[in-house]
Write a structure and sequence with these properties.
- GO terms for molecular function: methyltransferase activity.
- It holds the Pfam family Methyltransf_23.
- Keywords: Methyltransferase, Transferase.
- With about 350 residues, the chain is an alpha/beta fold.
- The chain folds into two domains: about 10-60 and about 145-345, Vaccinia Virus protein VP39 (Rossmann fold); about 80-145.
- The chain has 13 helices and 14 strands.
- The strands form four sheets. The protein has an eight-stranded mixed β-sheet, with helices on both faces. A two-stranded antiparallel sheet has the order 1-2. A two-stranded antiparallel ribbon has the order 4-12.
- A hairpin with a 3-residue loop joins β13 (about 325-335) and β14.
- The longest helix has 23 residues, at about 120-145.
- The protein starts with 17 loop residues before the first strand and ends with a strand.
- Bound molecules: S-adenosylmethionine.
């Protein structure tokens, strides 16, 4: 068994296990064929040139904004700008990743019982919504592991012909997916970029050192467990628009970026993925899926998640944006709560 007090509690002998800790799931399993078919659906569009917006429709816009955004706009008498909205989002979201969920659930239940004794409907409603949020977070993030989804992400990222790749992560936040890629492609050099400083100083800095990423041992070709401090990572705090890299990356990655830009800006965002890519390099993108359960999630978690403009889209819509911006779609699919694309420039 592993010792959770150890700095690196998991090693090669734990490959295949999953374990729930108070904040997140540890998942060192690979997908069985049955699970693969349930959680991963790859390459459903045979020919991207045959798709049209008329056929696929446009994304769904999430319009329930957080209380913080509404209060800020009322106070400042203007629409909240994207940079400010990200600073609010990152703080609110990070607070959920560091919750001890079972303990918080107990507290929330006690709070609810207390609120009942107050006979004040507003207090009772508030306590109930706290319970609903915690239950949903517990299910989506901790039980289902839908947000990090290491098995789905590995299915999307696997099989690229790359040795010691240079990886650029645009809008990196806590940097999870670049670390998963780094574990899968040994010797990777990772550059993370986010213009919200809090992402570097807190979200990434506090990402658990003990979290095990499943990757490959280049010497043996078998699985190995990799930790954050074993990866080669540089974190830049800046606007993507200010980067002065050349075409020097094998992978340019974004996770949850494209859907935050209305259509008139999407070609620019697509271009961010092309500008720094070597010839033959891969642009990898994921965005949240347009499905009923995601709509419910963004409604219940509005105060945590909805400071920014946000769309939910299908993988066909996502692929068409990138195809129309001059990318070939090599792999596309659905994982648990996200769509994923692996593309190359045409
Ligand atoms: C939705 S988050 C990515 C999702 C992430 N996996 C998470 O857990 O929050 C998008 C990130 O992109 C960053 N971002 C947005 N526009 C940017 C820009 N122009 N330059 C740099 N970072 C940007 C935001 O600060 C935010 O941290």
């Amino acid at each position: 068994m592993f010792n959770s007090l150890q700095q690196k509690p998991y090693s090669k002998e734990h490959v295949g296990i999953t374990h729930l800790n108070p904040q997140y799931r540890v998942d060192l399993r690979s997908l069985s064929e049955k699970e693969y078919n349930k959680f991963v659906s790859i390459n459903t569009v045979p020919d991207w040139s045959q798709l049209s917006w008329k056929k696929v429709g446009k994304p769904y816009e999430v319009t329930t904004y957080s209380k913080e955004r509404k209060d800020w706009e009322e106070h400042n008498e203007r629409t909240m700008d994207p940079h400010t909205s990200w600073t609010y989002f990152n703080k609110a979201f990070h607070e959920w990743f560091i919750k001890d969920v079972p303990e918080e659930k107990n507290k929330a239940k006690k709070h609810f019982v207390k609120s009942l004794r107050s006979f004040r409907p507003r207090e009772i409603k508030h306590a109930l919504s706290g319970i609903a949020q915690l239950q949903l977070w517990n299910y989506v993030h901790r039980i289902q592991d839908g947000i990090w989804d290491p098995r789905g992400k590995r299915a999307l990222f696997e099989g690229l012909r790359l040795q010691k790749p240079r990886i650029l992560f645009l809008g990196a936040a806590e940097g999870y997916e670049a670390m998963q890629l780094g574990a899968m492609y040994p010797g990777a050099e990772i550059v993370m970029v986010d213009y919200d400083e809090y992402c570097k100083t807190t979200r990434f800095a506090e990402f658990p050192e003990t979290y095990p990423f499943l990757g490959e041992n280049p010497r043996t070709g078998s699985w190995q467990v990799i930790y954050k401090d074993e990866l080669n990572i540089e974190y830049i705090v800046d606007d993507v628009r200010n980067l002065d890299f050349g075409k020097e990356f094998d992978i340019v990655l974004s996770v949850g970026l494209l859907e935050h830009f209305p259509d008139e800006y999407k070609p620019e965002v697509a271009d961010w993925h092309r500008r720094f890519l070597k010839d033959g390099g891969y642009a990898i993108l994921t965005t949240p899926r347009n499905q009923i359960r995601s709509k419910l999630y963004y409604r219940v978690m509005a105060d945590v998640m909805n400071h920014t403009y946000r769309e939910l889209m299908t993988v066909e819509q996502m692929g068409l944006y990138m195809y129309e911006s001059g990318f070939n779609i090599l792999r596309h699919g659905y994982i648990k709560v996200h769509n994923g694309l692996v593309c190359q420039t045409r």
